[in-house]
Amino acid sequence: MDRVQLIHDRLFNKDFMERKEWWGKDETILTTEEMKNLPLIIRKAIATEYTLRYMPIHINPDELIVGSLIMASQGGGREFPQYAFPEEKAEGAKSSFTEKSVWGHNPPDYEVVLKLGIRGLKDVIRQRLTEELSKDLPDMEAVYLFQAMMICLSGICDFASRFARLACELAVETTDFERKKELLEIARICSNIPELPPETFQEALQTHCFIFCALHNSMEIVPIGRVDQYLYPFYKKDLDEGRIDNSYAEALTASWLAKFSERIMLNPDHFEMFHANELDLRYGGDPNDGSSLINEDKEEYNYGTSSNNSMVNMILGGQTPEGEDATNHLTYLILDIWDKLELVSPVCSVRFHENSPKELYTKCAEILRDGSGEPAIYNDKPIIDGMLSYGIPIEDARNYSNDGCWETLIPGKTTLAFDHVELLQLLEYMYTSGWSLVRNKKEEEGYGDVLSHQTYDSFYQEFLGHIERRVEFIIANKMKYYRDRYKIAPSPLADALTYNCIEKGKDINLDGAYYNVFSVMLTGFSHAVDSLVAIKKLVYEEKIVTFEELIDAIKLNFQGYERLRQLLLNKAPKFGNDDSYADSVAIKLLKDVENIAMRVSETADTSVFRIALGIATFECYVRFGHKIGASADGRLMSESIASNFSPSIGMDKNGLTAAIKSATKPDLLKYYIGSPIDLQINKSNFSGREGLLRLEGVIRSFMDLEGNILTITPTSVEDMLAAQKNPEKYKNLRVRMGGLSAYFVALSKNHQDIMIERTKH
């Protein structure tokens, strides 16, 4: 059987790893007196080395690229040796941080290992260590960091050597001559790389995979980056020299891609995704409240879920740092194999620019038509121009990658943190003087009598004031805890792969990266716009309803006010329909928030990081909606909100083009970090050759209109309903979740129903 098909079948049919700890419940490195005298960052490095040296490893019978991941990776389940003492844990807890509070969101510099190997990188670090120790007063924090980096990098070499030995053992055992040759080649490669730089395509893929595995096994959630750029020279050289043919290149690529999608059942006892408890609750999911992301009651279908494959991004195409088209043969090969394997991880994205080849548009349209929700479409012009507006040099801007869900960052140079401004929640507080309708308690102070506003402008200015207060708060909070993560959860391995950390001798949590970015993310944007439109038009201009009546209806979740609700839903214009009235409100709100963010960043002490903007729910639109009461756009209490920058659910009634035109009217340069519009479309619209051309045209139109990020999921209501009844027959049905894609049958019933509703209208 074709190797690609074998790998596909394994990924869909093989049972995933059991839900259990791999080493014992309370594993620790704190076993000797010597450990007590070591700095915490050195102990973290030893824990990383310990993991790579002792974690269980395996080699699948069909694979040519090897590597293993544990529950410290691919989602929120985190298992890692204890390396901090009680007093250190207590100190970290003051800022709500623990040993597990590693953030990730820093695309590593894979190229440095591909060029130098681990040995060459250690030489660079060793030189900096020597320089620091030669000073009259060495910076001991830098010394400890360099030592920790060296320990972590040695751990990666140990990790590779273990696979070399295992491959030899399996080669001895097998009677299949061809497989024996493959295993011996794997053993040879793992004996040399990543300690030495790779020379062949297979060696480069293996090096990349080992670095990725090591980072994730140390709890660093990182993407795989611009892989068609890093790996293409090796691929081309092997083809040109006849070392591999197209068939073997496909097999290697499939084996490598599969490493990012292998199933790892998570232990929920080890979930810890964010340092703030409130955020943990917001994002973590509660099976009792209907907002959970995963289908937690059916473990037989709980494979490859969003939570099991989070934040593993790759991005293809785009431009070189010199501004040339970066699309190459490997771009198409990766796209083709990714599609054949029917993956949701890695999340696939493609960069387009004015000189992108027609073939790339066609290839992406063909894949999108299958209903994967990917590749996500990135538009180089507004994103690069946005980065330039923040002073990022054009060579770096052209080299941007993505991370997390879709955030645009510079690989090897950027760390990212963010917080949300929940626009719809702030509007609710205005109606209720800071009272939560869902939680039935007072949560915020400083809200006056909303009925006192005689004009819409007066009401709107108060709304902007609350937004500014929130932006001030989250930036001040960020500054307060900015460096505290280092005290308990430093990142020495990520530091070794982040430009400037070695030069500066600083951890990424201590301003070590070249670009430290903090993003203010707007959430519930379209619903907030639609609510403002309804208030402006129906309350203040046409006076069809009084503000008092509207607020009473909202507080009662429209019980007894269904006529008013229908008026709000159908009479007031809605964002996403190319309606000038609604779109003008959206444009003004985005510009006003931009001005607020820039003003706050100028007055606050933000010298160590850059303030960026985005529009985001990620995959958490059900969760965000669940905690908010009814809203002035006619939405009911706890109903899901729209994902990211998308129109409100069911309100984009003028078609795909109108939705795109609305989303592309605002100036999004300052929102370059990401403002995706996610569109769920009935796949019948794109059937046949004509449909393919139509889909290709949608991508081109989005580019021409200078949209930021676009995702399209052509799917079928009938297929999704059938999948709910017979999930075992629809294992490969994929849908886009706002920040990633997931297998439909793995989602909770609530999320499935939202997907169906988004397609129905």
Number of helices: 29
Find the count of extended strands (DSSP E, 2+ residues).
14
Shape: globular
Roughly how much helix do the residues carry, as a percent range?
40-55%
| Parts with pLDDT < 50 across at least 5 consecutive residues | 15-21, 265-291, 296-309
Radius of gyration: 26 Å
Mean pLDDT: 89
Task: Assign the structural class, choosing from mainly alpha, mainly beta, alpha/beta, alpha+beta, or little secondary structure.
Answer: alpha/beta
In terms of DSSP E residues, the strand content is 5-15%
Distance from N terminus to C terminus (CA atoms, Å) equals: 42 Å
Q: Can you list the strand order of the major beta sheet?
A: 1-2-3-12-11
Largest sheet: 5 strands, mixed
Question: How would you sum up this structure, described in words?
Answer:
The protein has 29 helices and 14 strands. Helix 1 packs parallel to helix 11 and helix 14 crosses helix 27 (688-704). By secondary structure, the chain is an alpha/beta fold. Helices cover 47% and strands 9% of the residues. The strands form five sheets. It has a five-stranded mixed β-sheet with strand order 1-2-3-12-11. A three-stranded parallel β-sheet has the order 6-9-10. The model is unreliable at 15-21, 265-291 and 296-309 (pLDDT under 50).
